[in-house]
Amino acid sequence: MSEEKYYTPIIDEFRVWFVYEVKRNEIWTRTYINRKNPDISRIQAKIEDKKIRVKFLDIDDIENLIVTKIDPDGCFYFEDNDKNELCMSVSGRAIKIVDVEMNETRFSGQIKNRSELKVLLNQIHVKCI
Fold first, then answer.
1. Is residue 78 within 8 Å of 88, Cβ to Cβ?
2. pTM for this structure?
3. Domain spans of the chain?
4. 106-124 residue pLDDT tens
5. Among 55, 66, 86, 112, fewest CB within 10 Å belongs to which?
6. Angle at 124 between CA 121 and CA 127, to 5 degrees
7. What is the pLDDT of residues 36-92, one digit of tens each?
8. Which residues contact 54 (CB under 8 A, 6 or more apart)?
């Protein structure tokens, strides 16, 4: 995983359930988009003022989204909705998810944050906890 912990998002990343932090009175508070029509102009202004940040994906995010076991090589094992065993390997921001039995890649690419990982897991039929 990356040494940098946070980044400034672009407005295109914001969607329902997107998790981010807002700076209010010098304190960062975690929040998320919880309605279909957020005030985009307000969010954009806060981004420009450096009052919004997003935490990069880390090990805790992965462990909190999926039930896993981790092997000594750092591969996260979990199951999809059909009980197929999957293995997720992480290198920096690059993630690869492989169906263990079929030796078939389900995903290979960059994931920046928890919200992106959650969308991906839903797309490959993995129930998040």
1. yes
2. 0.85
3. 6-55, 59-123
4. 999 999 999 999 999 999 9
5. 112
6. 50
7. 777 889 999 999 999 999 999 998 899 889 877 888 888 899 999 999 999 999 988
8. 6, 7, 8, 9, 13, 19, 20, 21, 112, 113, 115
